[in-house]
Automatic annotation (TrEMBL):
<protein>
    <submittedName>
        <fullName>NADPH-dependent oxidoreductase</fullName>
    </submittedName>
</protein>
<dbReference type="InterPro" id="IPR029039">
    <property type="entry name" value="Flavoprotein-like_sf"/>
</dbReference>
<feature type="domain" description="NADPH-dependent FMN reductase-like">
    <location>
        <begin position="13"/>
        <end position="155"/>
    </location>
</feature>
<dbReference type="InterPro" id="IPR005025">
    <property type="entry name" value="FMN_Rdtase-like_dom"/>
</dbReference>
<dbReference type="GO" id="GO:0016491">
    <property type="term" value="F:oxidoreductase activity"/>
</dbReference>
<dbReference type="Pfam" id="PF03358">
    <property type="entry name" value="FMN_red"/>
</dbReference>
């Protein structure tokens, strides 16, 4: 008998806001991939997109013209049930790459279905944050508010994060193993996010 944890009926997109282009390693991508793996235990498949690898133009339109890579990323987002934003902390803030992606999501406020609902209604969002400075809660608060503003639903305990010693030089990817607290927090994020996404997929929001 199949269960909620084994039925592969949900999809996720992880947008990584690292400033570092591929193929260089990224702590943000590492944690984002760990979130995707944890979601896999709940019947979720998906992919990771490192935003900095693509020519995402500044702006608040869904398409900023020839060469803009955001429309293709947007199509992936609209096709997914879950959006995960994985961002580093820089100067106490989400990265500039993350902020650019959030600015582009502003265009969703003008996109509605036939019943007047935003196309993002029914989609669930979670956040993963890494850094070697304080600020994980501040960063998640900024990202959560932006995502909720443009129609995403935020589950309970929808953040996982790791921050190293303040003013230190150790990155998340430098750790010999993932701290148990991070692992359990990521599992909780995955369970709650998949559960809520499945409920909303079965019964979405009513028209206003």
């Amino acid at each position: 008998m199949t269960t909620e944890t084994t039925t592969p009926d949900l999809t996720a997109l992880v947008l990584v806001g690292t400033l570092t282009p591929s193929p260089a390693p990224s702590s943000s991508e590492l944690l984002g991939r760990q979130v995707l793996a944890a979601l896999g235990a709940h019947g979720v498949t998906g992919e990771v997109v490192r935003v900095v690898d693509h020519d995402v133009r500044p702006g608040v339109q869904k398409d900023m013209g020839e060469g803009d890579a955001w429309p293709a990323i947007r199509e992936k987002m609209l096709a997914a049930d879950i959006l995960v934003i994985a961002t580093p902390i820089w100067m106490g803030q989400p990265s500039s790459v993350t902020k650019r992606a959030l600015e582009r999501l502003d265009a969703e406020l003008s996109e509605e279905d036939d019943e007047g609902r935003l196309l993002t209604y029914g989609k669930v969002a979670a956040v993963a944050v890494v850094g070697n400075e304080d600020g994980a809660h501040h960063v998640s608060a900024e990202v959560f508010q932006a995502l909720n503003d443009v129609g995403f639903t935020i589950p309970a305990a929808a953040i996982t994060y790791w921050v190293g010693e303040a003013m230190g030089s150790t990155d998340y990817q430098d750790l010999d193993e993932t701290p148990e607290k991070v692992t359990t927090t990521t599992r909780t994020l995955a369970a709650n996010t998949a559960h809520l996404a499945r409920l909303l997929k079965q019964q979405g929001y009513p028209p206003a």
